[in-house]
Design a protein that fits this description.
Distance between the termini: 52 Å
Strand order of the largest sheet: 8-9-10-12-11-13
CATH architecture of the largest domain: 2-Layer Sandwich
Protein name: m7GpppX diphosphatase
Number of domains: 3
Helix content: 25-40%
Bound molecules: N7-methyl-guanosine-5'-monophosphate
GO molecular function, one term: RNA 7-methylguanosine cap binding
CATH class of the largest domain: Alpha Beta
Oligomer: single chain
Subcellular location: Cytoplasm; Nucleus
Shape: globular
CATH superfamily of the largest domain: HIT-like
Subunit structure: Homodimer. Associates with components of the exosome multienzyme ribonuclease complex, such as EXOSC3 and EXOSC4. Interacts with NDOR1.
Keywords: Acetylation, Cytoplasm, Hydrolase, mRNA processing, mRNA splicing, Nucleus, Phosphoprotein
Length: 330
């Protein structure tokens, strides 16, 4: 049987994430957050739901908006994938309740021990209007952004700082948060980056592997800022990212999807590494640009992303969409 569990360098207790402690999360926001993996009183037991932002039965995820101690909060609850190495234990310690039986077919409700019923919980608190909107199910619209649109609509929008705060990114780069999660770092100020698990990944199985590489350089907002000058940085991320993932998770580059988002949610350059075959949110053609393609495009035209027209979806309540509408571009 293939070993699909994640290789760990630390004990499993230590890597257990507990996102759902309000006090800890606030400390994380400010100081970077120690105490990861520690269990404490469940502060979410007092969570009061105001509304359901989205439900996805297939992905077994629900996103709720509510209050934690009078502050707006977004809570994302997700059932976690199975890990092959725990299956024997799951069967041993469980009870089975028969639902129906017909010929050779039967269905049951299996009650596994609580340990195997973990729910990945992500808390954003205090959540802003932007967070609440981000997680709300909304209709999307395709936008065509010419070079001029970028300069007159998108860039002023980004510079207006109406986009999401980059505090969490700076915390990672300055080693104030998620330090123990760093998988690899190249400290070079021009070509270096930090590779670590995206917070969507619980790191328990490689089937849904999701890492992000955050560049040390502070002045690259997105794909639009990239020119041939950045090729050494991009090639470095691709090569060292792939090498590290092979060494650490035994996943060869032929199993990896490496890409950038346009538009990203956070305007500090970062690259996504996800496992091929895992339908990662945001890996579709309308938003993901393969890093290998980006490198080739810049090799053939150093100003490729400065000049070309870009296409991407924006959601109904996205402020950038309003800007495109106001400019008569939609
Ligand atoms: O390209 P885009 O900006 O959409 O992607 C940002 C990525 O950063 C997403 O895949 C998020 O799941 C991930 N992410 C967002 N936050 C706030 C965090 C965080 O605090 N820690 C980590 N490790 N990943 C995050």
């Amino acid at each position: 049987m293939a070993d699909t569990t994640v290789k760990r360098e630390r004990g499993s207790e230590e890597t257990n994430e507990l996102h759902c402690e309000v006090k800890k999360t606030k400390v994380d926001d400010n100081n970077g957050g120690d105490g990861v993996g520690a269990k404490s009183q469940n502060a979410l037991s007092g969570f009061k739901t105001s509304n359901v932002l989205s439900v996805n039965a297939r992905e077994k995820r629900i996103v709720l908006h509510g209050k934690v101690a009078d502050e707006d909060a977004v809570v994302i609850l997700e059932k976690t994938p199975f890990t092959e190495d725990t299956m024997d234990q799951v069967f041993k310690g469980s009870t089975l309740k028969l639902d129906m039986k017909n010929y050779i077919y039967s269905t049951y409700q299996l009650q596994a021990s609580p340990h195997y019923n973990e729910i990945k919980t992500t808390l954003v608190c205090p959540a802003t209007e932007k967070h609440i909107s981000k997680y709300k199910h909304q209709e999307s619209f395709f936008v065509e952004e010419t070079k001029k649109d970028y300069e007159t609509i998108t860039l002023p929008f980004i510079e207006d700082q109406t986009t999401f705060s980059l505090e969490w990114v700076y915390n990672i780069l300055q080693k104030k948060a998620e330090v123990e999660r760093i998988v690899y770092e190249d400290p070079d100020p021009d070509t270096g980056f930090i590779l670590l698990p995206d917070f969507k990944w619980n790191q328990k199985q490689v089937d849904d592997l999701y890492l992000i590489a955050i560049v040390h350089r502070m002045n690259i907002r997105s794909l639009r800022d990239l020119t041939a000058e950045h090729l050494p940085l991009l090639v470095n991320i691709l090569q060292k990212g792939q090498m590290t993932i092979l060494e650490r998770y035994s996943l060869p580059s032929s199993k990896l999807r490496v890409y950038l988002h346009y538009q990203p949610s956070y305007y500090h350059l970062h690259v996504h590494f996800t496992k091929l075959g895992y339908d990662a949110p945001g890996c579709g053609v309308e938003r993901a640009h393969l890093l290998s393609d980006v490198i080739q495009n810049l090799q053939s035209d150093p100003q490729y992303y400065k000049n070309r027209t870009m296409y991407f979806p924006l959601r109904e309540e996205d402020k950038l969409l309003s800007k495109f509408k106001e400019a008569g571009r939609l």
